[in-house]
Design goal:
This protein has about 260 residues and is α/β, with parallel strands linked by helices. It has 10 helices and 12 strands. It is elongated and about 60 Å long.
Length: about 260
């Protein structure tokens, strides 16, 4: 993906525009392009604060003239796009006025002994992003995604993560057997069996296993579990949303 400094894009057929649109709207395009689209000043600021160096800064034409110098200087290349075309890139209901293209971080290896959140086929992007925020907030510095989980660097997960990505070790495409290298107690969340969270003796460090929205943690993962944990629900609901359950469980661990 290339652009010239301070250039203006006004053609729908511009190659850069097509690349940006794919990054913004295709959940796995980042894997093919090796780049990630960050839309809006909140995500862009979160990336800069974590030392991420954008390759390209993109502005709507109307915002370009008033964009703070820090945004314009953040990347070695900048481009303005006429407003209607900028809006066509966006995956947002109300398009932002700027964005960064940043290099996709290399998929790191699993870090043995480091507290982790394990995602087992969690498919809703909003749930995954929310879980990343909870992981970052409560001291779980790596998230391990098994195959079948929503793409961690997809635009929707990035938006829901609100910048949490840049403080986490994110590992994608794992199989259940890969978790054996973690060397930590594995806690499987369950809606119907196991110890109640408020009564359980939670080990630290540990790894929480969070499963598919409908099916829960797979039998293969459960067979590796050190313990099964459920959350008391005196209100009588059948189960909690996986992101809500994650926040409760990770908070409980952080307080031990």
């Amino acid at each position: 993906m290339t652009s010239s400094s301070h250039s203006l894009v006004s053609s729908r057929d511009n190659a850069l525009l097509k690349d940006l649109r794919r990054l913004a709207q295709d959940s796995t395009a980042y894997r093919k392009q090796g780049q990630v689209w960050l839309e809006g000043d909140h995500l862009c600021r979160a990336a800069l604060e974590r030392g991420v160096a954008p390759a390209l800064a993109v502005f709507s034409e109307s915002f370009w003239a008033q964009a703070p110098a820090q945004w314009i200087r953040a990347a070695p290349k900048t481009v303005a796009i006429v407003d209607p075309l900028f809006a066509s890139i966006s995956g947002l209901e109300s398009p932002a006025r700027m964005g960064f293209v940043v290099p996709l971080p290399a998929n790191p290896a699993l870090a043995p002994g480091q507290a982790a959140v394990i995602l087992d086929r969690v498919q809703d992007a909003g749930n995954v992003g929310s879980i990343l925020r909870s992981a970052a907030a409560f001291g779980f510095r790596q998230v391990l995604a098994l195959s079948g989980t929503a793409a961690l660097w997809s635009p929707k997960v990035l938006r829901a993560g609100m910048g949490a990505h840049f403080g986490l070790r994110l590992v994608e495409g794992l199989a259940a057997a890969d978790l054996d290298a973690l060397g930590l107690p594995l806690l499987a969340t369950s809606s119907h069996q196991g110890d109640f969270l408020h009564q359980a003796q939670l080990p630290w460090p540990c790894a929480w296993m969070l499963g598919h929205e409908g099916q829960g943690v797979s039998a293969e993962l459960e067979s590796r579990a050190t313990a099964r944990i459920r959350i008391a629900q005196p209100g009588g609901e059948e189960s909690l949303n996986v992101a809500a359950a994650a926040a409760i469980c990770l908070h409980a661990s952080a307080g031990r």
